[in-house]
């Protein structure tokens, strides 16, 4: 399935006049919400979508400003606004319980959901959570050069002027040496990044890097107090949030013991080693079922 096929099989819902793209695979099974990261989209999950659908009713969406969703120039792209969009989608789909599989910025989105849950601001229940690579702690985040420039005062120019070759080079740097995307897969990443004027707002999307520092107490605190069954699956060769993140995770959250470390894998376990990711994800859920 290519990106165009993914779009054709999806749907849209309205959020305050903006079209938000989402994908579902519905059946009479527990609901799994799949959350993507920066600067990609729900299409990241296409390699494991069919296998996941054998066990779950699936929901994935493109955050506003990403993928096939609208990318308004005047939108306030905060994490809080992004979670408002997600809550609107969940309410639109009449979901009352769900499991979460999150990656990269999707982890931060989940952290804000947990914070709102503590404040009794969710009208649905989060049953289990699985995180993949993503900067959970601002002190361990190692942004690549493209991210550093995008968040700088000249970021608005970089998003417009960066050549495709530099985008590919930057993206390739966070994958494992032996798990690189194909040319066609890189083309899909680029297409989704550029779709509907995405280049022009990329510097706005990355403001979450500053938010992670500002709201560290809120979001790390939500992890510290999390009650849901949790597994962390990490590609150790990720230069942004790999081996060093796992070490810090163990320091900050010593009570969370369920950590799967993947040697030779970079930032995108679900894209680089889909079969391995599925094995560890299903093993986790099988254990939860056995406990009930």
Features:
292 residues; alpha/beta; Rossmann fold; 8 strands; globular
Mean pLDDT: 92
How much strand?
15-25%
Structural class by SSE content: alpha/beta
- What's the gyration radius in Å? 18 Å
CATH superfamily: Alpha/Beta hydrolase fold, catalytic domain
How many helices? 14
Total E-strand runs:
8
List the domain count as a whole number.
1
Distance between the termini: 36 Å
Oligomerization state of this entry? Answer: single chain
User: Which strand order do you get reading across the main beta sheet?
Assistant: 1-2-4-3-5-6-7-8
Provide structural commentary.
By secondary structure, the chain is an alpha/beta fold. It is built from 14 helices and 8 strands. Strands 1-2-4-3-5-6-7-8 form an 8-stranded mixed β-sheet, with helices on both faces. Helix 3 packs across helix 4 and helix 4 packs across helix 11 (216-224). 39% of the residues are buried.
């Amino acid at each position: 399935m290519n990106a165009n096929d993914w779009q054709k099989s999806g749907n849209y819902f309205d959020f305050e006049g903006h079209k938000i793209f989402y994908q579902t695979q519905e059946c009479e099974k527990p609901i799994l919400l799949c959350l993507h990261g920066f600067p990609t989209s729900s299409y990241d999950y296409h390699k494991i979508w069919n296998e996941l659908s054998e066990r779950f009713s699936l929901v994935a969406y493109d955050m506003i400003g990403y993928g096939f969703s609208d990318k308004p120039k005047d939108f306030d792209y905060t994490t809080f606004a992004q979670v408002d969009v997600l809550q609107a989608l969940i309410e639109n789909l009449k979901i009352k319980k769900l499991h979460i599989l999150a990656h990269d910025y999707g982890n931060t989105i989940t952290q804000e959901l947990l914070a709102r849950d503590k404040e009794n601001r969710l009208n649905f229940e989060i049953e289990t959570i699985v995180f993949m690579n993503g900067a959970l702690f601002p002190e361990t985040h190692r942004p690549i050069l493209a991210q550093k420039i995008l968040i700088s005062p000249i970021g608005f120019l970089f998003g417009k002027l960066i050549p495709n070759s530099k985008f590919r080079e930057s993206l390739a740097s966070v994958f494992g040496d032996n798990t690189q995307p194909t040319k066609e897969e890189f083309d899909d990443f680029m297409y989704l990044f550029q779709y509907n004027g995405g280049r022009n707002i990329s510097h706005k999307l990355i403001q979450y890097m500053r938010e992670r520092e500002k709201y560290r107490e809120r979001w790390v605190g939500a992890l510290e107090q999390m009650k849901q069954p949790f597994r962390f699956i990490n590609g150790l060769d990720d230069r942004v949030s790999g081996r060093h993140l796992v070490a810090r995770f163990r320091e900050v959250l010593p009570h969370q013991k369920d950590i799967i470390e993947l040697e030779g894998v970079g930032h995108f376990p679900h894209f680089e080693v889909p079969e391995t990711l599925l094995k560890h994800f299903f093993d986790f859920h099988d254990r939860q079922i056995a406990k009930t």
